[in-house]
Specification:
Distance between the termini: 44 Å
Strand content: under 5%
Number of strands: 0
Radius of gyration: 16 Å
Order of helices and strands: HHHH
Structural class: mainly alpha
Largest sheet: none
Length: 108
């Protein structure tokens, strides 16, 4: 059980960090390029959300193969576990996006 919680926690924070870090770096870059910082940060956060989930759960199509092969074989537990990891990564990416929105709220 400890391994499952550790992997879920890492997936959450990886997805959160990808969105938050990417948005902050896009904001810094927009300052150098004289672009509107808040709109760049908000669009980057929403565009990075799906890629943050992909990066957190493995960065390839392998998690989908795990789900497909285990359901096809009748083993639901590994498939449900993988879907849970994807849901936790989505939660992390969504919270990162909401934090960027909160940071940019006063400037828009």
């Amino acid at each position: 059980m400890n391994v499952i919680l550790t992997k879920a926690g890492l997936d959450f924070f990886i997805a959160f960090g990808v969105v938050l870090g990417g948005s902050m770096l896009a904001g810094i870059g927009s300052v150098f390029l004289l672009l509107p910082t808040t709109s760049i940060m908000l669009s980057t956060a929403s565009n990075l959300k799906i890629w943050a989930i992909v990066a957190a759960v493995g960065g390839s199509i392998d998690p989908m193969r795990v789900i497909e092969s285990n359901i096809a074989d009748g083993h639901l537990s590994p498939a449900v576990l993988q879907i849970g990891y994807i849901a936790i990564a989505f939660l992390g990416a969504h919270m990162g996006t909401e934090l960027v929105k909160l940071i940019c709220k006063g400037a828009v």
